[in-house]
Specification:
The complex is a heterodimer of chains A (146) and B (154). Chain A has 146 residues and is mainly α. In chain A, 73% of the residues lie in helices and 0% in strands. Chain A has a single domain, classed as 3 helical TM bundles of succinate and fumarate reductases (Up-down Bundle), CATH 1.20.1300. Chain A is built from five helices and no strands. In chain A, α2 crosses α4 and α4 packs antiparallel against α5. Chain A is elongated and about 75 Å long. The N and C termini of chain A lie far apart (82 Å). Chain B is an all-alpha fold. In chain B, α2 packs across α4. The radius of gyration of chain B is 25 Å and the shape is elongated. Chain B has one domain: Fumarate reductase/succinate dehydrogenase, transmembrane subunit (3 helical TM bundles of succinate and fumarate reductases, Up-down Bundle). At the A-B interface, α2, α3, α4 and α5 of A face α1, α2, α3, α4 and α5 of B.
Chain lengths: 146, 154
């Protein structure tokens, strides 16, 4: 009576050792958990940028001078690095979001979620390899004052 | 002995409370569907937005009133930006709601955060939509060199 159901199944299959930690979960440890952590952090960062970005774009309704004054701040080298970080966050959030949709709707999605995480990372590296040189050119041109 | 009680078979019915099986409208389910549906559309809209504004031409250095005014004078970009505004803000706020539910254990704090989220979404969606559809790319009395090239000479 005192035996838990898991030990019952272990008695029936003595060759299969009981796992010491829960297995078969998407959200505890390894790729599943870290993708979830990164998805949250990038999501919050993008949300707060979005709030600011709607306000700064709304200045087109005030005057050309007001809009240009604020948008010039986006062209400084420090903000240029901020834009690189923003694109990095959006790129990961977008690719991992597609991975989540595949986990939910693709029949073998949950089984392949770890592999899909590394595909997300690979695609993100390719995306950043394309964007970072472009952005560094922009920052460099701003430094040169051309 | 407690283990014995916990593992003892529970006689049917196991729950005294009736289980609600057929809810007509499950808002959490539609929130879940919304995150995925809007997410796919936002991938296209935002990557397009980033390419046009940060990558093509001179990148972010090309952006000024003339550039944005020229874009927002066209219905195509008006609808592109308004779609992004509505989809992204609601997507983001719903994600923030999930995070508030996860980490704010105090009921009052939770409701204050969610109230702030609703206020931010309503105000910014109204503001953004009004700006996109009411703004004038050629405001009178502005220096011509700040305006889009199609503006008539004043």
């Amino acid at each position: 009576m005192s035996a838990a159901p898991t030990t019952d199944s272990a008695k029936k299959h003595p060759d299969i050792p009981l796992p010491k930690v829960p297995r078969g979960t998407l959200y505890r440890g390894r790729e599943g958990m870290w993708s979830w952590v990164l998805h949250r952090i990038t999501g919050v960062a993008i949300f707060f940028f979005l709030l600011v970005h709607i306000l700064d774009t709304s200045l087109v309704r005030v005057s050309p001078q007001a809009y240009n004054a604020v948008i010039n701040e986006y062209k400084t080298p420090i903000m240029g690095l901020g834009e690189a970080a923003l694109v990095a966050a959006i790129g990961f959030h977008a690719l991992n979001g597609l991975r989540i949709i595949l986990i939910d709707f693709w029949s073998v999605g949950p089984k392949r979620q770890r592999l899909m995480f590394w595909i997300v990372i690979a695609l993100w590296v390719i995306l950043m390899a394309g964007f970072l040189p472009r952005q560094l050119m922009t920052i460099g041109a701003e430094f040169a004052g051309a | 002995m407690t283990a014995t009680i916990e593992n003892a078979p529970i006689e049917s019915p196991r729950s005294a409370a009736p289980v609600r099986r057929h809810r007509r409208f499950n808002i959490e389910k539609w929130g879940w569907i919304y995150m995925r549906a809007s997410g796919v559309v936002l991938v296209v809209l935002i990557f397009g937005h980033l390419f046009v504004n940060l990558v093509s031409g001179n990148g972010v250095r090309a952006i000024d009133f003339g550039f944005v005014g020229g874009k927002l004078a066209q219905p195509f970009w008006q609808w592109w930006d308004v779609s992004m505004l509505w989809l992204a803000l609601i997507h983001g706020a719903n994600g923030m709601r999930t995070i508030v539910n996860d980490y704010a254990s105090n009921r009052l704090v939770r409701n204050v955060f969610k109230g702030a989220l609703v206020a931010a979404v309503v105000i910014l969606i109204l503001l953004g939509t009004l700006v996109v559809f009411t703004f004038n790319p050629c405001p009178a009395g502005s220096p011509a060199d700040l305006l889009p090239s199609f503006c008539p000479v004043q």
